UniProtKB/TrEMBL annotation:
The keyword Phosphoprotein applies. SMART domains: HTH_LUXR, REC. Pfam families: GerE, Response_reg. InterPro entries: CheY-like_superfamily, Sig_transdc_resp-reg_C-effctor, Sig_transdc_resp-reg_receiver, Tscrpt_reg_LuxR_C, WalR-like. CDD domains: LuxR_C_like (cd06170). This is Response regulator transcription factor. PROSITE patterns: HTH_LUXR_1, HTH_LUXR_2, RESPONSE_REGULATORY. Residues 3-119 form the Response regulatory domain. Keywords: DNA-binding, Phosphoprotein. Residues 134-199 form the HTH luxR-type domain. The modification 4-aspartylphosphate is found at D54.
């Protein structure tokens, strides 16, 4: 029996997935949760074979949580479930050592097969998306620039970002100017749009 936990914040989607997986003879959902902050404690408690994690969760985002699971409970494999089928998002998932990456609009049987593959130690990724990831451009931004831009995209202003990252406001402005230049963006809002569409945030 493959024991899984499911982290998905949309109640209807989560309920449907739990019901769907309940039809599989070899898969058991031992816990379902709604926030990224609950993932690591739930994994520690249940020690599942696979953690199915949505990327966009309240609290900690799914990719951060997946990286933590890999670091602290490596025997639990992670399968990223997302509606964001972007090459950059896939690359970030693979960098977080996710065992698999599957889109929410994939046929239901593909989820069960992906769980089995990940539980068996295989890397399971949608083929077309994998090709697109190899063909797409690498992110030209540094890790710190991405961090600053991600906070700006979340609505934080320069002073907020400076406080959170222990930087001066002038340094944050310099990062945002560098980001805008590197992305050939018209302004900060345009830079956020470009980076989001490329899957870099």
């Amino acid at each position: 029996m493959i024991r899984v936990i499911l982290a998905e914040d949309m109640h209807m989607v989560r309920g449907a997935l739990v019901s769907l997986l309940g039809l599989e003879d070899d898969i058991e959902v031992v816990a379902d949760i709604v926030s990224g902050d609950e993932i690591l404690p739930t994994v520690h408690h249940h020690r599942p074979d696979v953690a199915i994690i949505d990327i966009d969760l309240p609290g900690k985002d799914g990719l951060t949580a997946a990286a933590e699971v890999h670091e602290e409970v490596p025997e639990t494999r992670t399968l990223i479930l997302t509606s964001l089928g972007r090459p950059g998002t896939l690359r970030r998932a693979l960098a977080a050592k996710a065992g698999g990456f599957i889109l929410k609009d994939a046929p239901p049987n593909e989820l069960a097969e992906a769980i089995r593959g990940v539980a068996a130690g295989r890397r399971v990724v949608d083929g077309q998306l994998a090709l697109a990831a190899f063909d797409s451009e690498d992110c030209p931004l540094t890790a710190r620039e991405v961090e600053v831009l991600r906070l700006a995209a979340g609505g934080a202003d320069v002073v907020d970002i400076a406080g959170r990252l222990f930087l001066t406001a002038g340094t944050v402005r310099n990062y945002l100017t560098a980001v805008t230049t590197k992305l050939n963006a018209r302004n900060r809002v345009d830079a956020i749009r470009i980076a989001t569409e490329a899957g870099w945030l």
